[in-house]
User: Fold this.
Amino acid sequence: MGNIVEVRNLTKTYSNNKALDDIDLDVEAGKVVGILGPNGSGKTTLIKILTGLLRQTRGEVAIEGQQVGTYTKSIVSYLPDRNFLYDWMKIDDACRLYRDFYSDFDESKFESLLEFMKLERPMKIAALSKGMHEKLNLSLVLARNAKLYVLDEPIAGVDPVARDQILDAIINNYSRNSSMLITTHLVRDMENLFDDVVFLNDGEIVLEGNAEALREERGKQIDDIYKEIFGE
Amino acid sequence: MEFNDNLPIYIQIMNLIRSKVVSGEIGGGDRLLSVREFSKQLKVNPNTIQRTYQELEREGLVFTQRGKGTFVTEDLETIRNLKRDMASAIVENFMLKMKKMGFNSEDIVQIISEWIEEER
Assistant:
């Protein structure tokens, strides 16, 4: 199917500090890739470069063969790890914002996601709980017919019921033609969703591969491998 | 479902389906859930379910009908053989543990007989 994302020798330095050090990464179409690592490992820096919010110091990043820019932004749907909607909005306003901004926004898909998440258009953003925020944001992001979905910590800090709804929504959205890149430190909860996993530590890839092959090879679940790498 | 064994997920799901077939919970000729439905139910990647079905098909326990889904074999012989294989695996594991504890075959026969007697 070919690669949706190709990253070569990607390096990002902040003054003397290397946030990413010579990263190579391919994401195949139809794959869900987990980017795993503790805080400060470079996950968010990597995501911000892929989504065009930061520029790399060195190296190449191609999405569908194009350098990061206006075109790639139009095919990448990004869920930031913090709320990005204004407090004065209602869910309906958020929907209109997305419809105006993204030509690939599919309102009927959004409608069914809202229903699935038990959210309604007249609800005020300011009145939503943390879990509802996360569900709304994910609904907006998944309602785009994008080539690449980048989800930064999609289940951080939500209750178990909301977490299950979020996982279901991610599975429902699975498609052979698009890919997902998901960062998390809640490895146990999410590892069964991943085709491939990438372990990032201090800006370097310390381990990567097919999740099932790693389980087979090491006789451990991904969460246990995570603890082994980042533990103590 | 929690996957806690130190095995790949697709193998754990294969084992789940095998035991349901052997126990009769899923009968010969029954249709399995679609890849999409099953992946939602277990909250695992659809590719993992796909792999599970492919491996079970390779073993002959299930077959796929284009556009209709994946079905459990109607060949009762295959299911009986699977049941026997699974029983052998349990017995083998049991015998290994008992011998490690120092019991010989006669002791084991006696312990089992007593157990069965008590169960009646």
Observations:
- The interface with chain A takes residues 3-4, 6-10, 39-40, 42-48, 51 of chain B (CB under 8 Å).
- Residues 77-119 of chain B form one domain.
